[in-house]
Amino acid sequence: MFRRYKVHFSQPAPARSRGRQERDVNVEILKEFLSGNGLVGELDRVLPSSAFGILEVSCTPLLAERLSDMPEVEVVLEA
Predict the structure, then answer these.
(1) What are phi and psi of 48, to 5 degrees?
(2) How far apart are CA 74 and CA 62, in angstroms?
(3) Read out DSSP for 19-73?
(4) Residues 6 or more apart in contact with residue 65 via CB below 8 angstroms
(5) Side-chain half-sphere CA neighbours of 53 within 13 A
(6) Which among 5, 58, 74, 78 has most CB atoms closer than 10 A?
(7) Tens digits of residue pLDDT in 1-56
């Protein structure tokens, strides 16, 4: 049911990232999108990743398709 995906984000807006880790900002953006679209149950977990601008997530294929609708996301790849 859940699969691993790599979500490539564009650079976060400077106002959002003031003194915060890039990963934390991207996770916050992802969670806001999920709650705003009723997709919270589609995300299993956010996996640790050391790559800049990339989040590894475990989620359903439905959510992976919807993530590409986010303006902050450049591409979603199956891991």
Answers:
(1) -65, 140
(2) 17
(3) TS-HHHHHHHHHHHHHHHTT-GGGEEEEEP--STTEEEEEE-HHHHHHHTTSTTE
(4) 76
(5) 11
(6) 5
(7) 899 999 999 876 666 777 778 888 899 999 999 999 999 999 999 998 778 889 99
